[in-house]
């Protein structure tokens, strides 16, 4: 069957994963009268892209695009997030959110180039990802039309469970890999993997040991610690040194992949939480973020040495939570993201130096830090033993002035 | 020598530690013509209070007060900090800051009762503690007069090093314990111990293994994890259950001490940072905060299940950093602390439930959480598999409306 | 025609205004098979309620409820907003938003009492009010069902303009008042009136002089100023004194209505802006907020005298914008509103005293303020001429300590 | 007497005003053995600079520098403040604070060039200005030494009142202008004038009509309004058009001075408040800020039309209060100011367009606004009458999704 001859409704660029869901969506869209092209983004997930291309073509896709976005993912999304210490609800490092902008951007570029009036994706109607993809689509290409089958009654009423999808796959001769479906769903990229749904929906169920895929269990990690040094320029990692292995790694992507390898071996980066989705639903998620966890510890530590107190305080109190929420809520392509990224860049000029780390069974332990170019830290001035930098008498005045307001208040309150 | 007959300048209540510094201050104040009473606060530090009382009296103190403040420290200071997830500069749990208000308050109460016009302390002129103690003093008793010898030239120029203090101690017959002085200084209470100064002043020097006092090195901690359940009511811990040991602990102080014991055994709560002191100096500090680290993980996790997203977001973005900074800067007795504590209490009404934890070699791992009284989490609603709670079509409208503003912006920017 | 016998779909409580739109909605709902009861909230708008009741009954309403909500509007919504200095986007005093919660709450109470499964309103599908009403409905009565005809294609496609409504009114024998429709729409209550749409949609069109309804044009206001004193307790007005008229007004509602009268006479409270609606659309609105404008000036002035600097700063920086946004976005019945209202109340304990004002041709001019119970202001201490309260030498230390950090930065930057 | 031959302590650059205080300081510094150079900054205050130069030289200054800083004051300090809508405690436009950085910077430049080891000023020990000047000095030239006579006991104990200064002036043959001293003190520049101290220290005393210097009393302003148009580029004014006078003004300084003239004639910009000084004292101040008041109204209005909602919200909630506080507290030369100014610039890219204003007896009334380059405002989209841009059905989904969280909360609370 040639899609070109029968498609009457226009051309769709489908974000395709190679799995059962998006293969069925692909076939269903063709059935509905669309020409369908498939788009696969390589953001570092474990995937047989060649097999997926064959499968997509077999299902009737007129073209299939596989795009390697790993480097731009690391350099454009992950490293600014490291600079900003982004974190959602105090714990989650935003691995899914960070990948969405690069995926959506390339999809829109291809949609524009290939004259696709439509894009489609396999996100459900209850999650965050539908929002993240579509807000990015609309910002980047305001005239794009989105087909979200899991929000279309004709689709979701027809496919009410895996059984219905398998039956449709059989009908359409879509090959199905005979693996036992895991009792949870995952999303993977080079920054993290997420686990949710299925047995995880009960927030009091401990994830089974064999669920965790990227990292070794801390209990099974080596008994001997690994020691590395990470060098930062303007808040971004530029070198990792592993002296015991006589290894130096440079290059944005290369550094990240090397840290991933070390973190995975040492059981670093697991998380199990209940979080608040953008649409107002609480949801349980488990995550592994190996390299991201190391970089967060190292970057925050270096900021202690090299970043001014007030800049840090302002960045922490405003920019970090706002930028983190914005990423989570899918608003990376927005005027406010531009605004916040200008502030993030402005905050990192002095964040230059090295952090020495020990990695051990889930722990990322700072063993020291230094900076050649930055002299905000002054050993003599902070010394309790040396009279340097200022007179202790000055502290007296500092405290007395601070106390003026509190004394007035105390007089009113008569606290004792 | 009777202080009563020779003191002509008035009565001082000295915050006394039993160590060399405050013993010399005690003798020096008497030499200057003051009557001196000594005050020792028991906030859970390791200390031989009986020996200290004898020593103080031997030095000429007319009275010595030893006050057990452990319970009020835990219940009035630590647990509200747990409720607020207080943290300074993203990493430090504020152990020294949290103890200061209870210590200062009792000192002012005794000063009022004993008609002391003066109080004195042994804090240096470069640190945070002088500020914390004195702002508390002035707020609680605005007419108090403070003698801070380490800011008085006549004192600090006379005692320029340990040698001068030892000579003075010999002259005044102050007994000196013959221990080798450690190459750092510490401050200890039941919440934490801090290490700073000395060899730690070089931020690239790794603390020696034998420095850490409260916790076992994670590398030396047991190879078998410990599992516990912590129950919270309105954000405060009310019970700890250790099923394998058939142990249940209740009572604010008792819970805290039991968690300390478990955390110490499992190498939990070490920290090594460069922080910004209130007076604008960067300073390197190492800390051990055993129970506080466990409680932070557990409380934040339970908030995921039981706290509304917007309340959490507002509390996180404003109350937590403001209250943390305020504690660090010694402004607990202040109108703004009253204001923030009202907000903290208002935020915790729904934070009820249990968290199950695994403690293992420095890690605090959440294994599950539940809440009997709270139904903000709805398994069916968050399920990706079940159509429940709302129609996927609603998400379509939600996204479309969110996109209006971004489309307008995108049209202006022509991003693709 | 008896609604009781023919209505098969259930009972609706319609928010009824007496105008053409909601009268047509009333008739249309009956036509669709619903029993309809009407609800009119008196929040101080100019309205012939008796005529509206007759009209609603004539259209087929089985019951009509007219509820006087003026006092609860002032005391529960307006005065907390005065305490918080609420303002949207720096200029708008939120008059429409403030009325919605009291209107929606009574509607839900009646819906519950009268066993109405449905409620309905006449809000359009592009504005803020649909959001405000419905979020309140759902929070107060989560099982309520909402019929919003202007979002139902069968309705809005049938009634595409005023002509269609008039034709339907004629068909249903709905009496239509023969006034020329104004080229803008309004929403009025005792706090304010809003004007939008029609000729105002061009943001560069100056509103015609005869549009403004509540206030006299400042150019036409009296040439002689009016002077009053407003007394506040905990941030709420408790008395207004007009000495020249030998008049004292007390009582929450009475004070508000009296200030409205004075403000209207003196041309106070006009505003013309472009604002951002919740749904992301920019919209031009004109407003008159007479008493609210006076109270804002007076309350903020008294806070200068009576509120601690840090509490003010925290409240200004966080609570005021968050609470203002929340009101604008219709989230008054929410956990975060409860949280913020606790903080607002905590902030106002010391805001007690009097403010003397001059009202003149659009200006609200403060002429003095005083507080009997509050002594945070200390004339001697702030005097530049008197050495009181603290030593100037203390300021030296204060500045020196503040400069430590800046000197370090300056050394790095070499600014000169 | 030649200062050059007798000065043994080094060279001082004194910030000199030409008045009694700084003339006495000049003579006193020479008496103490310093060589003194004088520095006068022209920031638009009313002053006879030529007479002051003669006076300073007569008192013994070895050099006198008069520097015209008006243009850099307007362009580097005032316009970024307009962009940020800076305001202190909700009402004060920061006129004194804004002038300090340009004054201090030139003083440090001259001190460096002329090899002055010292600078001196006539600020009191209780005010904000000592902090503002000295923090700027120390940041710009960390090794500068500051002589603040009003904080030196030898000085302030000798000169306890105006009488002592007059006696010293007579002794030193310093000419004194025979004007009656006003019962308040002032600080003037082209942005504003401040009045404080003296009779104003009682916050309930209405300022006398003849105190106000820059603006006409609104009651005496013209009965006919003045109409102007202000054009902005990236948030800064670039043109003022007065059509009735066929006048167009361009140039940063020229625009500001022209707006000052119009505002003064129309009684615009008076303020009377109690504010919180940096050092924690409450203080009463009266201010006239003519052009600044017009520009604030116009700029905020244009942002309504041209600035994205989220960027505005973030800027308002964080950048504006932080930058305002920082200016007030004298921390313009700081890393955090650099950080905030980067954010301010990033926020203003789209703030381009015109605002039409009516000036009338103290009122600044917006009559319309437009923007040729910005299309965030969409007349059709915001129209209540037109179905454009999006479907009303989308709003339904938007509201439903927003309500999920609130329904859950409502079910728990059972509000009705």
TrEMBL record, chains A, B, C, D:
**Gene3D superfamilies linked to this entry:** Argininosuccinate synthetase, chain A, domain 2, HUPs
The protein's annotated pathway: Amino-acid biosynthesis; L-arginine biosynthesis; L-arginine from L-ornithine and carbamoyl phosphate: step 2/3
The regions listed as transmembrane in this protein's record are 12-30
An individual GO BP term: urea cycle
All residue ranges annotated as the Arginosuccinate synthase-like N-terminal domain in the record: 11-175
What keywords appear on the UniProt entry? Amino-acid biosynthesis, Arginine biosynthesis, ATP-binding, Ligase, Membrane, Nucleotide-binding, Transmembrane, Transmembrane helix
EC identifiers of the protein: 6.3.4.5
Q: Name one GO molecular function term.
A: ATP binding
What subunit structure does UniProt give? Homotetramer.
NCBIfam families xref list = argG, PRK00509.1
**Would you tell me the protein name for this molecule?**
Argininosuccinate synthase
Give the gene that encodes this protein: ARG1
């Amino acid at each position: 069957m040639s899609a070109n001859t029968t498609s009457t409704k226009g051309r769709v660029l489908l974000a395709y994963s190679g799995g059962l869901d998006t293969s069925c969506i692909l076939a269903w869209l063709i059935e509905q009268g669309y020409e369908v092209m498939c788009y696969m983004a390589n953001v570092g997930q474990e995937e047989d892209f060649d097999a997926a291309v064959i499968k997509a073509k077999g299902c009737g896709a007129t073209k299939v695009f596989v795009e390697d976005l790993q480097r731009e993912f690391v350099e454009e999304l992950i490293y600014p997030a490291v600079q900003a210490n982004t974190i959602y609800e105090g714990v989650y490092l935003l691995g899914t959110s960070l990948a969405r902008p690069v995926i959506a951007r390339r999809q829109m570029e291809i949609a524009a180039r290939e004259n696709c009036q439509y894009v489609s994706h396999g996100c459900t109607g209850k999650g965050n990802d539908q929002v993240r993809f579509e807000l990015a689509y609309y910002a980047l290409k305001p005239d794009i039309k989105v087909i979200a089958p899991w929000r279309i009654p004709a689709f979701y009423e027809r496919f009410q469970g895996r059984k219905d999808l398998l039956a449709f796959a059989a009908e359409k001769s879509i090959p199905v890999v005979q693996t036992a479906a895991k009792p949870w769903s995952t999303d993977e990229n080079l920054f993290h993997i997420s686990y949710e749904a299925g047995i995880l929906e009960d927030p009091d169920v401990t994830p089974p040991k064999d669920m965790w895929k990227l990292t070794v269990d801390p209990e099974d990690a080596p008994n001997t610690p690994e020691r590395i040094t990470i060098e930062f320029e303007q808040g971004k990692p530029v070198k990792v040194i592993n002296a015991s292995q006589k290894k130096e790694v440079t290059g944005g992507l290369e550094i990240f992949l090397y840290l991933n390898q070390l973190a995975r071996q040492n059981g670093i980066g697991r998380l199990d939480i209940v979080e608040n989705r953008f649409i107002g639903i609480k949801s349980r998620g488990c995550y592994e973020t190996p390299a991201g966890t190391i970089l967060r510890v190292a970057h925050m530590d270096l900021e202690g040495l090299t970043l001014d107190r007030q800049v840090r305080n302002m960045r922490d109190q405003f920019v970090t939570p706002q930028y983190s929420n914005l990423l989570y809520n899918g608003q990376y392509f927005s005027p406010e993201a531009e605004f916040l990224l200008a502030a993030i860049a402005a905050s990192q000029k002095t964040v230059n130096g090295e952090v020495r780390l020990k990695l051990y069974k889930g722990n990322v332990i700072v063993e020291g830090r230094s900076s050649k170019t930055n002299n905000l830290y002054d050993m003599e001035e902070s010394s309790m033993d040396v009279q340097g930098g200022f007179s202790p008498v000055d502290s007296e005045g500092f405290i007395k002035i601070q106390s003026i307001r509190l004394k007035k208040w105390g007089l009113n309150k008569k606290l004792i």
